[in-house]
């Protein structure tokens, strides 16, 4: 891992968590004040929040456009457009919620608000999935080759340390086969992830029992530090296996998420435009 990733990844995590917490507090405060009529959608600050929030949601289109329009990537690298997309995708819905004062109004405004909330919820789900197939929220895409290499390294370390027993090696091999076999379907891959999650503690217990038996046979009086070492080795190994198996699941879910998210987004835009025209014409 590079020095830059070691330094900036934790800082990005702190920043993202602080931003999420701030948004949650702001939304909770707005919800508590929703019946006090401090804001109204028809005029003043509430009206301005609706205009700005709606405009911000339109700007979200620039990120997918940046993948197809070279001029945009010349102006800003794609990762910056992505950052703008994530930021505006968070503050836009918050502004619109304050614009509506957390209430449903007419039919057209209610439909527009519900569509926006669906898109926002879809974006949060997509963000969660995205972080499991990339190095963090703004890092490069993870490759299956990286994950396989991590698994091989941890397997080698584990075998060199403790796995001298044939049954134990067969158990390790079976777990690796579940994690590394080619993708055959979403449900099958998901079952493999569940299998690995269930068998990880079993593997740890098997290896620790084998280790204690080996020490007893050799009359070797070693301390509990050995148990901690083997526990860390097994944890690294099983985590690498689960990450490899889960990677295929997240990749497939992310591709399905894209199919759903884009129509929801355009539905939101259409309903928002209808809402704006309805408000100003009638």
Describe the secondary-structure layout.
Blueprint: H1 3-32, H2 44-59, H3 62-66, H4 70-75, H5 78-99, H6 107-130, H7 144-161, H8 166-180, H9 186-217, H10 225-281
Helix pairs in contact: 2-5, 5-6, 6-10, 7-8, 7-10, 8-9, 8-10, 9-10
What labels would you give this structure?
282 residues, elongated, 2 domains, mainly alpha, 10 helices, 80% helix, single chain, disordered N terminus
Helical content stands at: over 70%
Measured between the Cα atoms of the first and last residue, the distance is 59 Å
- By DSSP (H or I, 4+ residues per run), the number of helices equals 10
Spans of at least 5 consecutive residues with low confidence: 1-8
Provide the number of structural domains: 2
**What would you call the shape?**
elongated
The helix/strand series, from N terminus to C terminus, equals HHHHHHHHHH
Structural class: mainly alpha
How many strand units?
0
Classify the beta-strand content into a percent band: under 5%
Sheet with the most strands, sense and barrel status: none
State Rg. Answer: 26 Å
Q: What is the average of the pLDDT values?
A: 77
């Amino acid at each position: 891992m590079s020095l830059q990733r070691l330094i900036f990844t934790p800082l990005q995590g702190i920043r993202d968590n602080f931003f999420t917490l701030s948004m949650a507090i702001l939304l909770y405060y707005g919800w508590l004040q929703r019946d006090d009529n401090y804001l109204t959608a028809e005029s003043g600050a509430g009206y301005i929040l609706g205009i700005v929030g709606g405009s911000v949601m339109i700007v979200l289109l620039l990120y997918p456009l940046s993948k197809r329009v070279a001029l945009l990537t010349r102006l800003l690298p794609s990762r910056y457009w992505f950052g703008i997309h994530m930021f505006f995708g968070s503050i836009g819905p918050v502004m619109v919620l304050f614009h509506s004062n957390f209430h449903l109004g007419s039919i057209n405004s209610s439909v527009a608000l519900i569509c926006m909330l669906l898109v926002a919820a879809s974006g949060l789900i997509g963000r969660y999935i995205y972080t499991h197939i990339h190095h963090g929220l703004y890092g490069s895409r993870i490759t299956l080759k990286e994950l396989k290499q991590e698994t091989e390294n941890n397997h080698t370390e584990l075998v060199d340390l403790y796995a001298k027993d044939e049954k134990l090696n067969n158990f390790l091999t079976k777990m690796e086969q579940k994690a590394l076999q080619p993708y055959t379907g979403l449900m099958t891959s998901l079952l493999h992830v569940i299998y690995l999650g269930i068998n990880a503690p079993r593997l740890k217990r098997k290896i620790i029992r084998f280790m204690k038996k080996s020490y007893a046979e050799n009359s070797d009086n070693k301390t509990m530090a050995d148990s901690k070492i083997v526990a860390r080795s097994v944890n690294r190994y099983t985590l690498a296996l689960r990450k490899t198996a889960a990677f295929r699941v997240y990749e497939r879910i992310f591709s399905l998420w894209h199919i759903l998210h884009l129509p929801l987004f355009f539905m939101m835009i259409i309903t928002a435009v209808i809402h704006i025209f309805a408000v100003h014409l009638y």
